[in-house]
């Protein structure tokens, strides 16, 4: 229980916050809880022994606290964080608490982060480890709180962590960690790209850094790191790295490339998912997983939903749900995969510019349908960089816009085209999550085509 104070304030009663409170109460800590909203969860935590405050924040709630645990969504400029830091209190979040509460002999952590591809890579990694006979689970930002699982009956943990979670880590030092890629994202939370990238490098705090040799920004972030590194690339790998040779993913740690599986066997398809698979393989190698299990895990892998998934075909037109593309870097991976497309885009851009994305992929576009709170910014990018691409800007600001977008996209599409929902933006302007956005899109497509 190294580094965990006796008296702690937990801010937020979501999945991470509630799990943190329960773990702290079970370990005998004095816990104060704050949430702006009263809820059944808050009431239950009070019944379990926490001192709960709801409503407007008061700095007096910090009285007696020695540390503060915040939900990962709390940015550094949040008033609670600033109040805690002004009182010289250490601030961290649930994954860091899980690390500090680890017991002797607990399973090693393999950490996955990056701008895009985290969940795919983490679940690929879990599939490989399972194929090798390890007891494992994909945890972290995927949905199951680490603090309830870190001391579970596992041999090794495959852990997805966001930049938010890594920003609030302090002592966490995983067996190995990967930064898959880096691009502008969450700049409104971190303040600028350099702070965002710096948060990601916490994944490399442990023994082994897994590095994308094809990403210049990842390589730049590695400059100050010393220690063991394993690289991955979509080209022929250098000795000690993972890469691609003659259409096969290979492990080149032994001095001669050993085949894992064929690139054509990777699902979902696309070069970005080949890179994700190589990253997962590199991480798996740090706990002794061999190429046979890596290949078996990839062949048996079931892709996660809303990630470049084809949901329908009719009259020569394919319809693809890539709702998970919540930033331009993610959308680029999907747009790159198709020769002629109709793009459905828009939502909350989070301070990121889509001009480069529009300019790069406009030659492929039959048309574009723009939705969401920042639709005007996307439309402006088309006006500046792709004025010849026909666009429809939909003014609806509720979920009915999905059916409108499907109908508008169908009006542009011709045989041989792919209609791609790849928003390059977050979903919370109109939806509960990117998953709800994708599910509503799939439902609207099926209804329209029926």
Describe this structure in a few short sentences.
With 450 residues, the protein is an alpha/beta fold. Helices cover 33% and strands 20% of the residues. The chain has a 6-stranded parallel β-sheet. A 6-stranded mixed β-sheet has the order 15-16-20-17-18-19, sandwiched between helices. A 5-stranded parallel β-sheet has the order 3-2-1-4-5, sandwiched between helices.
Describe it.
The structure is a single chain. The chain is α/β, with parallel strands linked by helices and 450 residues long. Helix content is 33%, strand content 20%. It is built from 16 helices and 20 strands. The strands form 4 sheets. Strands 7-8-6-9-10-11 form a 6-stranded parallel sheet. The protein has a 6-stranded mixed sheet with strand order 15-16-20-17-18-19, with helices on both faces. Helix 1 runs parallel beside helix 4, helix 5 crosses helix 10 (271-285) and helix 15 (401-412) packs across helix 16. The mean pLDDT is 93.
What's the arrangement of secondary structure elements?
Blueprint: E1 7-11, H1 15-26, E2 30-35, H2 40-47, E3 51-54, E4 67-70, H3 79-86, E5 90-92, H4 94-100, E6 109-113, H5 118-131, E7 138-140, E8 157-160, H6 163-167, E9 176-179, H7 187-190, H8 193-200, E10 208-212, H9 216-221, E11 228-232, E12 242-245, E13 248-251, E14 258-262, H10 271-285, H11 291-299, E15 309-314, E16 317-321, H12 328-335, E17 341-345, H13 355-361, E18 365-370, H14 375-385, E19 391-393, H15 401-412, E20 418-421, H16 434-449
Parallel strand pairs: 1-2, 1-4, 2-3, 4-5, 6-8, 6-9, 7-8, 9-10, 10-11, 16-20, 17-18, 17-20, 18-19
Antiparallel strand pairs: 12-13, 13-14, 15-16
């Amino acid at each position: 229980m190294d580094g965990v104070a006796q008296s702690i304030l937990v801010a937020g009663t979501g999945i991470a916050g509630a799990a943190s409170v329960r773990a702290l109460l079970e370990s005998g800590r004095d816990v104060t809880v704050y949430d702006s909203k009263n809820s059944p969860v808050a009431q239950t935590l009070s019944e379990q022994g926490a001192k709960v405050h709801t409503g407007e924040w008061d700095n007096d709630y910090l009285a007696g606290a020695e540390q503060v645990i915040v939900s990962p969504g709390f940015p550094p400029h949040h008033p609670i964080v600033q109040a805690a830091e002004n009182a010289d209190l250490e601030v961290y979040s649930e994954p860091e608490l899980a690390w500090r509460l680890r017991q002797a002999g607990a399973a090693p952590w393999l950490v996955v982060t990056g701008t895009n591809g985290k969940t795919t890579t983490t679940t690929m990694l879990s599939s490989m480890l399972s194929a090798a006979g390890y007891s494992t689970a994909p945890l972290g930002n995927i949905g199951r709180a680490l603090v309830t699982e870190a001391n579970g009956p596992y041999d090794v943990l495959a852990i997805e962590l966001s930049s938010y979670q890594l920003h609030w880590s302090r002592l966490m030092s995983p067996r190995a960690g990967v930064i898959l890629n880096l691009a502008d994202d969450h700049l409104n939370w971190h303040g600028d790209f350099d702070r965002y990238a710096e948060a990601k490098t916490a994944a490399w705090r442990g023994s082994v850094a897994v590095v994308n040799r094809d990403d210049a920004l990842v390589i730049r972030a590695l400059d100050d790191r010393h220690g063991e590194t394993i690289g991955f690339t979509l080209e022929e790998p250098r000795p000690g790295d993972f890469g691609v040779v003659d259409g096969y993913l290979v492990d080149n740690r032994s001095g001669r490339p050993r085949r894992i599986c064929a690139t054509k066997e990777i699902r979902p398809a696309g070069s970005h998912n080949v890179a994700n698979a190589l990253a997962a393989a590199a991480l798996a190698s740090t706990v002794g997983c061999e190429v046979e299990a890596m290949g078996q895990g990839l062949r048996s892998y079931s892709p996660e939903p809303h990630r470049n998934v084809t949901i329908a075909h009719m009259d020569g037109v394919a319809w693809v749900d890539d709702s998970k593309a919540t930033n331009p870097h993610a959308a680029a991976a999907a747009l790159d995969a198709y020769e002629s497309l109709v793009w459905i885009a828009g939502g909350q851009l989070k301070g990121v510019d889509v001009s480069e994305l529009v300019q790069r992929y406009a030659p492929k576009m039959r048309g574009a349908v723009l939705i969401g709170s920042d639709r005007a910014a996307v439309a402006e990018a088309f006006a500046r960089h792709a004025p010849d691409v026909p666009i429809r800007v939909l003014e609806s600001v509720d979920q009915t816009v999905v059916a409108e977008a499907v109908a508008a996209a169908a009006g542009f599409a011709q045989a041989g085209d792919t209609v791609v929902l790849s928003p390059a933006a977050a979903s919370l302007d109109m939806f509960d999550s990117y998953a709800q956005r994708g599910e509503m899109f799939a439902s609207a497509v099926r209804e329209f085509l029926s």
